Amino acid sequence: LKAASSNIKGGRTPTMACTDEGLVETSAPRSRDDQAQAVPALVVFDLDACLWEPEMFQLPCKPSGGYNAKRGGVAAGDDTVRLFPGAAAVLRRFLPGSPLRAAGMKVGVASSTTEPTYARVCLESLRVDPDRSETVADLVEYRQIYPGSKGRQHFPALQAETKVPYERMMFFDDCTYGDNCRDVATQCPGVACVRTPDGLTEALFDAGLEAFAQGERGILL
Predict the structure, then answer these.
(1) CA-CA distance, 104 to 73, in Å (whole number)?
(2) What does the pLDDT average to over 17-27?
(3) Could you tell me the pTM of the whole model?
């Protein structure tokens, strides 16, 4: 599985075979269809407690907008909204020209925050790399940010907008206040879901890609 992850990150989709020693990579080339199916076409991230902290409802006021280099995030009164280090590392892997972009992956966000205006300010202000100008918003093609069920509202809306089948989607969510992964997996069969209880990390992201490449769907972790 580690080999599969490194190959995906490097832009080459592995070919896997079942042997007496377990699932191993083979040298046989994949067809174009097989290569497409081995990686998600759309990766969807929750926002609060998955990509960043604190959560929007915890802020004392609307974020000021603009990246505050001194604070390392977006100021909201005395609070500062910051990306989790692992989330920032994952998002940097979607910068233009990266292997994941070359593989055709697109990025969406699905959030049921009660403060969607605050979330949009953070999306448009948080830099994925302090030394670069790109913000999270620059990497996100699709947004569903409003109170509601992710399984009954957000993901059906994403599917209608993108035309990507659920079987080609992957979802990451902290599931702090409810099991959104269970909701999505139940209401939208085929989506691969990964829980991120302590925020998104590269390890969870890679584990999700590995499982997706093996054809696993539903709740992966």
Answers:
(1) 29
(2) 39
(3) 0.84
